[in-house]
Write a structure and sequence with these properties.
- The chain is α+β, with helices and mostly antiparallel strands.
- Strands 3-4-5-6-7-8-9 form a seven-stranded mixed beta sheet, sandwiched between helices. It has a five-stranded mixed beta sheet with strand order 11-10-12-14-13, with helices on both faces.
- It folds into two domains: 139 residues, Fructose-1,6-Bisphosphatase, subunit A, domain 1 (Fructose-1,6-Bisphosphatase, Chain A, domain 1); 112 residues, 3-Layer(aba) Sandwich (D-Maltodextrin-Binding Protein, domain 2), CATH 3.40.190.80.
């Protein structure tokens, strides 16, 4: 069944404009072809930065990049499994529009058969994510968004608007390993929320926040491909996000960025205020 989405209007389009439904089809077809929903142990290799990679990371990147280049050759392509210098040249270069792909986020989960990992694809134009797709192949859930056109879960509109929570009532997704010691210690000793999770796949964590399954999010360092699609989906659903110092989280930066996010503006202000009070480095 073909999912219907509102049309995407690119400002000063280069040529034929991608449709969100087309991107959903490309990502889901690649995942089916690669057998990404198969939750079992997978062999891994170690990359230069110490992180692990599987054969399916490379296969997914190849399948999706081939399909994108065939349909929209005018856009550059940037994937997580490319060489660092090539990635940086695309993000920091003169390309007006490019695809940002994380072919398999949560590779450790995937390799160990833990069923929480996903695929993230965004179209970035003039430094902003304009289209975003995040696929959870295990649950057959596809999250997507159009800049200014809303967020969707399997084609149905998705919103966090109307959700009201006190900070102490919230469930937070917190990645401790990338946080400074004092802030991590305070979060463990004096948590301001009801409960905490760390699920291990950034691209899905953004979307679970957008779906209202979590209310707070904190991460010490994400690459642009980790947040490009997910942040657009959260924004279009009604959520709010910044870096810990309170700066905008955009796609003009290739370096890692911290993330503090919530399902609405009021909750984000309370969450960010608590973080700043307990992180001696936030203003640096």
């Amino acid at each position: 069944m073909r999912l219907l989405f509102p049309p995407f209007q690119l400002r000063n389009p280069v040529s034929a404009q991608p449709e969100l439904g087309q991107l959903v089809e490309i990502v889901t077809t690649a995942a089916r072809t690669a057998g990404l929903a198969n939750t079992r142990l997978h062999a891994t290799d170690t990359k230069a930065d110490g992180s692990i990679v599987t054969a399916l990371d490379h296969e997914m990147q190849s399948l999706i990049s081939t399909a994108l280049k065939a349909s929209w050759p005018e856009y550059s392509f940037m994937g997580e499994e490319m060489e660092h210098d090539e990635q940086a040249s695309i993000v920091d270069g003169k390309s007006r529009g490019f695809w940002a792909l994380d072919p398999l986020d949560g590779t450790t989960n995937f390799a160990m058969g833990f069923p929480f990992y996903g695929v993230s694809l965004a179209l970035v134009v003039d430094g902003e994510a304009r289209l975003g797709v995040v696929l959870d192949p295990v649950r057959d859930e596809c999250f997507s968004a159009i800049d200014g056109g809303g967020a969707f879960l399997n084609g149905e509109p998705m919103t966090t608007l109307g959700q009201e929570f006190a900070l102490r009532e919230c469930v937070a997704n917190v990645d401790y390993k990338r946080l400074v010691s004092r802030l991590a210690d305070r979060l463990v000793r004096y948590p301001p929320y009801r409960s905490q999770r760390n699920l291990g796949a950034c691209v899905l964590e953004w979307c679970w926040l957008a779906a209202g399954r979590l209310q707070l999010y904190l991460h010490g360092g994400q690459r642009m491909w980790d947040y490009a699609a997910g942040s657009l989906i959260l924004k279009e659903a009604g959520g709010v996000f910044t870096t810990i110092p309170g700066n905008p989280l955009d796609c003009r930066k290739f370096t890692k960025r911290s993330v503090a996010a919530a399902v609405n503006t009021d909750l984000h202000a309370k969450w960010l205020g608590w973080i700043r009070e307990n992180d001696e480095h936030w203003g640096k």
